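retry 2 of 3: previous attempt timed out while embedding shikimate-3-phosphate. Reduced batch size to 1 and resubmitted. Inputs unchanged:
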Amino acid sequence: MTMYNLPVERMTVSPPPRLRGTVRVPGDKSITHRALLFNAVAEGDATITGFLDAADTRDTLEAVRALGVDVDEPGEGRLVVRGRGRAGLTEAADVLDCGNSGTTIRLLSGLLAGFPFMSVLSGDGSLRRRPMGRIVTPLRALGAQVTARADGTLPPIVIEGGPLAGGQHITTPVASAQVKSAILLAGLAADGPTQVTEPAHSRDHTERMLGAMGAEVAIEGMSVTLEPPDGDLQAIDVRVPGDISTAAAWIVAATLHPDADLVLEGVGVSRSRAGILDVLRAMGADIDLENPRVVGGEPVADLHVRSAALRGVRVDGAIVPRAIDELPLLALAGALAEGDTVIADAAELRVKESDRVATTAATLRALGAEVEEHDDGLAVAGGARLRGAPVEAAGDHRLAMLGAVAGLLAEGETTVSGAGAVSVSYPDFWGDLARVGAAPVAART
Ligand code: S3P
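retry 2 succeeded.
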């Protein structure tokens, strides 16, 4: 049997005659991070079911343990977090290694701003290039003592935490759930309400989960106000839905492949995450939401996706943060649609795990698409005839999956270098690719 979840360097993909089957995508990354972090500072034990077991969420898990919280792993996709209450974390003996994970470093920084000890947070080469001024500045405004490399803008981040002043209103220039969440988590240690206003709605898992744990969370327009609970947050069991950002690879593959019929089971379809469904439907995609239900406070459905002919669209404004991690795949959809596709207002793409404007353009161009790079997005000419070629993951899990999906649709062979990057969010991606009928070939070098 071929094992696909090895740290293979290169994988070769070619278009299968058909894509068929049912995929249960792994648990949602954003929700797994939050279930671990918030339950760590809650009162009581919490069981997390269906958690994402991948490099990013393991970094959060190990950080929580390093801060003195017991997390058991009884198996069967479950974790049990032994919450230590709002004052329960203890100083870590070493740097908290956040790996490749922006969510880990930013949410943890917000949380630790309120704890009376020193924390140092850092990560891999990609993470150490990502902007941290966006959390350092507001955390300082809340009264936290936070410093960071390069004049407060890059990791490592150093925090000397302590009680924070309440009654603060922060306006953030970026629509970012990581920034919003960092501010709200710092607000848990404040002696009054903390309000954050963002320019557009970003994903709302933090608001939902903290609300369910007993914090008072009020949402009005673009603003969220958190009133910390008098006592502790209450631990809650969390059933983690499937991650729409990983499902996106299959949604786009099945839509664009000429003979496809895929069911993606148990995918979270919260409005704040489901922008990709709105964009693809506007392009003409055939996606049915079957068996809609609520799992762990989040709307969930089975997504039934069949081949469809697409037309180009413009993606901009408020939908961008609702589809931020799926934009590289939407650019690929644009290349194979009729007419042009423009992605704008998406400068955030440049500060993800890679500069995704540049890396998406490079991937699509290597396969023969015509792509213009803009400061805030991409213009993609439709009607491309893609031809297999070598492509680079650039150390970015989403780019590795983009290359593989493009390889399902391009004539001939596409070889993805750095294919092991999928371990960040979807360790069994290559195995699932084989399961839907497109066995990739591993080239160990
Ligand atoms: C995330 C928020 C998004 C997203 C990231 C996960 C989260 O980042 O790109 O993969 O879990 O809060 P921003 O909110 O900073 O855009």
